[in-house]
Amino acid sequence: MARLEQRVRKRSQTLARQLDRVLRVLEAWGYVEDWQLTEAGTLLTRLYTEVDLLVAETLRTGVLDGLEPPEIVAIVSCFTYERRGPEGARPAAPRWPSASLARRYRDVERIWRDLSLDEDDAGLPETRPPDPGFALLAHTWATGGDLSTILEDEELTGGDFVRIVKQTIDLLRQIADVAPDPATAASAAEGAGRCFRGVVAASSAVPG
């Protein structure tokens, strides 16, 4: 009994320390104040992604505002795509359909750097960095591009493409529900609709 009680105490203390660290970051970023969720904190609770705080801050600071549907699809894909390959391998330079969209991504990257520094200072695992490796493919798909043409010079398989697009659609729909700017919400919803076609839609069909 004594050993069990000691084990429970240690676990409780560890959880308490972890909660304190999380609260420290959330308070610093304006998501919690005096043990209460702020408006931004309420937005955060409605996002279900491993990079939820990064997405919430991107929304809150207006980085996604003013984007056309294919453009918001491209940026949101940076939150869902994660490059595979040998650890430490240097990724290819990202390709963007426009210089303005590349600048938007740099804003996302800046937020991630600031966030990861605060997480590291608090002793928390750092949020996974955004990855722009799928952005051009996502943009092309959202503008009606053909799958065979999109994947012609890519190492990505059709199955991986469908999986990433479906994850992006899911996050776009979440953003459509929570975005503070109605125009951004509408753009995200339209982007999700544009992506849900062809092989992506067919893979989601329920048999019978």
As for the number of domains, it is: 1
> Beta-strand level of the residues, as a percent range?
under 5%
Strand arrangement within the widest β-sheet reads 1-2
**What is CATH's topology name?**
Sec63 N-terminal domain-like fold
Radius of gyration: 19 Å
- Give the C-level CATH assignment: Mainly Alpha
Question: Structural class per helix/strand content?
Answer: mainly alpha
Shape: globular
Q: How many extended strands?
A: 2
> At CATH's second level, what is the architecture?
Orthogonal Bundle
Question: Poorly predicted ranges (pLDDT <50, ≥5 residues)?
Answer: none
Largest sheet: 2 strands, antiparallel
Average pLDDT over all residues: 89
Helical amount among residues, as a percent range?
Answer: 55-70%
Order of helices and strands: HEEHHHHHHHHH
What is the tally of helical segments? 10
End-to-end separation in angstroms reads 56 Å
Verbal overview:
It is a single chain. The protein has a two-stranded antiparallel sheet with strand order 1-2. The protein has a single domain (48-84, 92-203), classed as Sec63 N-terminal domain-like fold (Orthogonal Bundle), CATH 1.10.3380.30. The chain has 208 residues and is mainly alpha-helical. It has ten helices and two strands; from the N terminus they run αββααααααααα. The mean pLDDT is 89. It is globular. The relative contact order is 0.14. Helix 4 packs across helix 8 and helix 4 packs across helix 9.
